[in-house]
Design goal:
Order of helices and strands: HHEHEHEHHEEEHEEEHHEEHHE
Radius of gyration: 18 Å
CATH architecture: 3-Layer(aba) Sandwich
Largest sheet: 10 strands, mixed
Strand content: 15-25%
Distance between the termini: 15 Å
Length: 303
Amino acid sequence: MDRRKFLAITSALIAQTSLHKTLPAQTNTSQGSSIPDLVAVRGGEPIQMFDRAITAMGGIEKFIKPGQKVVVKPNIGWARTPAEAANTNPDLVGHIVKLCLKAGAKEVKVFDNTCNEWQQCYQLSGIEKAVIEAGGKIIPANDEAYYAEVELKQGRQLNKTLIHKAWLEADSIINIPILKNHGGARMTCVMKNLMGIVWDRRYYHRTDLHQCIADCATLAKKPTLNVVDAYNVMMQNGPRGTSLADVANKKALLMSCDMVAADTAAAAILGTNLTDISYIAKAKDLGVGENNLKNLKIERIAI
């Protein structure tokens, strides 16, 4: 295939999603590093897109070291099947668990403080089966005894909260939210996925949901890597959904160490105005990450 034809096909793929409207036209290379701040992959299957993204980020070994205790944190909040896109893609979760173990992780634990009954969520989502088959450990999060209090010194509304001990004890954490619409937060993605490591999530809704999401993102132990599952995206009626009509096949994946940057890019895929997702700007103000993508080195991959 000649270069002109290749570029034409690549441009056509980019035009299929609104993501390119938010990502700057050129990569910022001023930071002098070959590793991008954000990788945006489009047009493949979940595992295929992850493999391309992690290669661009320097390989799984850059984030997982031999002997480490690892937590993989998907969204498993709802008693829904994979096709309904309320939870993270189970094949993607299982693949990441397997790669962590292959990289030498001592153990890989997976959990979520679910909204529906936890055992139903773990089973119907397909994630429990995928984790076990990959050699990981699926653990519960349905009892306060699993949590320890943590102070959030930078928090403006949430000053302390109970965080799952597995998260606090982990050497490395891979956060794998699924991108979807949310009635209250407008979008659930990277930072909001941290509500699944907190015991009293109702406090968020009783006070200031967006500020609490931003405050929790200041947690000292942040994700080592964030992987956004945007293959099938719930565009409306989130976070649980009502039918398959709520779901659009976007065939996208984002990867970044920066939670704010990943959420900013994800909002473009969802088609949600950034001003409506106020926790992104609030987290930027708290120093969590960067919401101006023009300041970042971005690598785009079209499959």
